[in-house]
Design brief:
Number of strands: 8
Structural class: alpha+beta
CATH architecture of one domain: Sandwich
Order of helices and strands: HHHEEEEEEEE
Strand content: 35-45%
CATH topology of one domain: Immunoglobulin-like
């Protein structure tokens, strides 16, 4: 029986292992950092402390809005115009005025200001058509002194 002598573990072996390990770690870190930076669309609020000072005011506004009992449906039609229908207690509300913005989720496309005109059956339709893709709508609806704010994603 021939027995071979085990090879000695040298400093070169350890150096190769360490360099390979850290090369993989650095490659993963740089790849993940590049992906994070290229997909980050910006901040939600510029100053979280200042935003926190308005928190109770936002809660009261949300409570007022919930008490309106409005059910708002926003969608895109075949020509990519935003359509809005507002219901309250099963009845379509008319004489609603709406304005809003369409924002790209990643901030890569230019924002689009939206203006609305009334069409059939109390429905509102944006004058502007949106480009292809996914959009975040920020809409403000007003009827007399009642105000309703909403965010909706359409594509």
């Amino acid at each position: 029986m021939i027995t071979s002598k085990p090879r000695a573990f040298t400093g070169w072996h350890m150096t190769t292992i360490l360099v390979s390990f850290f090369a993989v770690v650095m490659a993963v870190n740089f790849t993940m950092a590049r992906m994070a930076i290229s997909t980050f669309g910006g901040t939600v609020v510029d100053n979280s402390y200042v935003a926190s000072q308005n928190y109770n005011m936002w809660l009261k506004a949300a409570d007022r809005q919930n008490r309106l009992g409005w059910h708002v449906e926003a969608r895109l039609d075949a020509e990519r115009h935003v359509r809005i229908l507002v219901n309250s207690k099963g009845a379509v509300l008319d004489d609603i005025q709406a304005t809003g913005d369409a924002l790209h989720p990643l901030g890569r496309e230019e924002d689009h200001a939206l203006t609305f005109v009334s069409v059939e059956n109390g429905e509102l339709r944006s004058r502007e058509a949106l480009p292809q893709g996914r959009w975040n709508l920020q809409l403000s609806l007003r009827r007399n002194t009642d105000i309703f704010h909403m965010r909706e994603q359409v594509q």
